[in-house]
Amino acid sequence: MTADLSRIVKAYDVRGVVPDEWDEPLARLFGAAFAEVTGASALVVGHDMRPSSPGLVDAFARGAAARGADVTLIGLCSTDQLYYASGALGLPGAMFTASHNPARYNGIKLCRAGAAPVGQDTGLAEIRALVETWQQDGAPADAGAPGALTTRDTLADYAGHLTSLVDLTAIRPLKVVVDAGNGMGGHTVPTVFDGLPLTLVPLYFELDGTFPNHEANPLDPANLVDLQRKVREEGADLGLAFDGDADRCFVVDENGDPVSPSAITALVAARELAKHPGGTVIHNLITSWSVPEVVREHGGAPVRTRVGHSFIKQEMARTGAIFGGEHSAHYYFRDFWNADTGMLAALHVLAALGGQDQPLSALVSSYARYTESGEINSTVADQAARTAAVRETFAARPGVTFDELDGLTVSAADWWFNLRPSNTEPLLRLNVEARDEPTMAKLRDEVLDLIRAGA
């Protein structure tokens, strides 16, 4: 097939419908291009549980091997397990997953050695250009002797590395419900949790890339309902929900109520600062006011950045930050090659909860200081015009400030909101925070009315 790469090569990864938008012959070209652009003599490849993953991985690996690269195949893994392999083995890596997208999708997340991200500005544009050339002119000739394909199991080593970073030996026994959503958490959690003082109640641990129970996207509240109910039924101490490739982790408390990722960011930041006094913590501009407040209270230096893992990882590297968190439940650790791992964040929550006697709702209350709207998407015909209308309305109000680090952020003494355009859809994304619920609700509704007036 001659694929339209503009549809499948995104800002940070490759993602599209298989086989309509890309297929195994195209995956082979991506493997060859990845080896060519990185100049790697060896690389590591893993995949999730989607039905199309094994065939795509085999084609990609053979394409890379044809360019002379030795390929280590680690098989079924979470995305952060692939990052572990890239960091521990010092190799560029490719993870075949479409995260929380429906079953017909698949994709590739790429990194250089040490889990360093590959995006449009760090190699992905070059990879796309090579693949486009080869689609038109034919695949490149093999580059001398082909590389070898070998297999390696990294699950136990990955689990051992994570548990070496968080001391769970002295925690009180906890009952935890985990909803893997039929994704890769069902593969990694049993090994990571093995031997810990936890009673594990598994939910949807069967690996099934057709997602028969619910989408593996915990950011949608509808996909947390089963976990919330199970936590209440079991009288569990908390619940954890992983997305399809298990790089994000969402938390619910003992009452089944969701815990804001901002509160988790603040909690983990406080723990990391106890290990690394005076360290820098990265947070994107949509996390709660509580995050930089907690960081400063614990002697750290908060740094605000744009939304998106490439910006977080760039700032992690630039500042030597010890930790970073996003509103979407991506958590980044210097001790994990600056890469994101929801599993390590989950271990921090378990250690914090098990190290004292309060329930989780009480423990996180000091980190959840404000009222958040969550992200609200609105379909609009003209993103720029609606954003300008919002800015004009609030420009006339005293004590209001603006910044455009990422979209439009409007702030006052008791509230703030951010309005960001989607890069791929005709959407505006709104996040609102205020000191109390009535203020947040009034502001949210006013801004939504302005946005949707021209929809």
TrEMBL record:
Residues 8-135, 157-256, 264-370 form the Alpha-D-phosphohexomutase alpha/beta/alpha domain. Its cofactor is Mg(2+). InterPro entries: A-D-PHexomutase_a/b/a-I, A-D-PHexomutase_a/b/a-I/II/III, A-D-PHexomutase_a/b/a-II, A-D-PHexomutase_a/b/a-III, A-D-PHexomutase_C, A-D-PHexomutase_C_sf, Alpha-D-phosphohexomutase_SF. It comes from the Bacteria. Residues 375-449 form the Alpha-D-phosphohexomutase C-terminal domain. GO terms for molecular function: intramolecular phosphotransferase activity; metal ion binding. Keywords: Isomerase, Magnesium, Metal-binding, Phosphoprotein. Coiled coil: none annotated. CDD domains: PMM_PGM. One of its GO terms (biological process) is carbohydrate metabolic process. Belongs to the phosphohexose mutase family. This is Phosphomannomutase/phosphoglucomutase. The lineage of its organism: Bacteria, Bacillati, Actinomycetota, Actinomycetes, Kitasatosporales.
